[in-house]
Design brief:
With about 400 residues, the chain is mainly alpha-helical. The chain has 15 helices and six strands. About 75% of the residues lie in helices and about 5% in strands.
Length: about 400
């Protein structure tokens, strides 16, 4: 949730930004600046996703508190779903849109190159979002904290966050890289991701049980009474009272709205790639990934603003684990189901690996290792470290730009 969303009054600044983005997009469309119009449309969708995911997160928090779900488990499940819905739906729609564009006769003949680009774009969105979450979100949080807490500008990262969430993220990432190094992705790989996520949940539940046992021994009890009373909608201009019926209604409506927004995000990504005459993969890895990560950004900034420094960092890692295990497996199942459970080719129409996939494999692992090393150093995040992290993300952006131009052929 954004800081502004936590205030009682409406978020006038956010509303003005939305109006400005729409006005610029309309002006660019009618004056013939198609690329500017697409970028403005992407900005509008990112704001829409932020506004949709905020009430979803509040409803999810209500459910977690109401049914006494431990905080760590709630963060890895309900909160992760709230912030990662865009990546999940974008991946599904990339697959569906790509397969719809393939000639049915080509599918019957076993030529799946064009369709494979759809799953490649889903991979690019999920992996690009993981890199964004892992690098840019902690950097943004550190800069916000440094500005708002000049007397205490350092974010302290608990050892548990790195030992549990950081290490588990690397395990999931290693499995993903091992699969991506194969010429084909099989449906059973999605099952492996789901099993990994189940093991992660069991681990979280065990840790939560130990934490509650320690609190009980100390004579303390977890407070389940602070249920959110309302879900704020559309820049806090409206409120929906939360109860056992309305929370599910909020979740259902916001899920449909998020799916709709992600469909248009996929269309904008494909159209932008067409305008630039570059592979969709390179647009998805930056544009779609960044747009879909907006909810994660505001959720972490909000946690840091409330003084939950470790929560701000662990939110990013927890979301990444969900992205790899769930947002990679569900589109894989959808693709396999539509294509008769045949393996998904990681090769393009020319028989070569999908453009950009090799570089993404290498960068994903290298940037994860470097970022964890930076966070592990004194287990603190400062403004200088934030600047270094931003520099790392610019390296990733440079890879996408150079790859799209054919200068870097990986």
């Amino acid at each position: 949730m954004s800081e502004s969303a936590s205030n009682d009054g409406p978020d006038i600044k956010g509303l003005l930004i939305l109006i400005l983005a729409i006005a610029l997009g309309v002006a660019a469309h009618f004056t013939g600046y198609a690329l500017v119009a697409m970028l403005c449309a992407a900005s509008v969708i990112s704001i829409a996703l932020w506004q949709v995911c905020d009430p979803f997160a509040e409803a999810a928090q209500w459910i977690g508190k109401r049914y006494h779900i431990p905080g760590s488990v709630r963060g890895a499940t309900l909160d992760a779903v709230a912030s990662s819905m865009p990546e999940l739906f974008a991946g599904i729609f990339f697959v569906i849109v790509a397969l719809q564009a393939v000639d049915p006769a080509a599918i019957e003949a076993g030529h799946h190159g064009a369709g494979a680009e759809g799953y490649g774009s889903a991979i690019a969105t999920t992996a690009g979002s993981a890199i964004y979450n892992m690098i840019l979100i902690p950097a943004c949080v550190a800069l916000v904290v440094a500005a708002k807490r000049p007397k205490n500008p350092i974010i302290r990262v608990e050892k548990e966050v790195l030992h549990r969430d950081g290490v588990w993220f690397m395990v999931c990432e290693l499995v993903l890289l091992a699969f991506l190094w194969q010429p084909y992705m099989h449906w059973w790989m999605g099952v492996v991701f789901l099993v990994l996520y189940l093991i992660y949940l069991v681990w979280l539940w065990r840790d939560a049980g130990r934490f509650r046992a320690r609190k009980k021994e100390a004579g303390e009890s977890e407070d389940w009474s602070d249920l959110p009373e309302h879900a704020k909608i559309f820049f806090s201009l409206g409120k929906v009272p939360l109860n056992q019926l309305s929370v599910w209604l909020v979740i259902a409506v916001t899920t449909v709205l998020a799916a709709t927004a992600c469909y248009f995000l996929v269309e904008i990504t494909v159209e932008t790639a067409t305008i630039l005459n570059i592979p969709t993969f390179f647009v998805a890895v930056i544009l779609a990934a960044a747009v879909s990560s907006v909810p994660d950004t505001f959720l972490s900034i909000g946690a840091a603003s409330r003084g939950d420094d470790s929560g701000a960092v662990s939110n990013a890692f927890g979301s990444n684990i969900f992205d790899i295990c769930i947002c990679m497996s569900i589109p894989l199942f959808v693709y396999s189901w539509i294509d008769g459970w045949k393996p998904v080719s990681m090769l393009g129409e020319d028989g070569e690996p999908i453009p950009g996939i090799l570089g993404l494999r290498i960068l994903l692992w290298a940037l994860t290792f470097i970022t964890l090393a930076i966070l592990w150093h004194k287990r603190a995040l400062s403004r200088p470290k934030a600047i270094i992290l931003i520099g790392l993300y610019l390296v990733f952006v440079a890879y996408a730009v150079l790859g799209s131009l054919g200068i870097v052929n990986v």
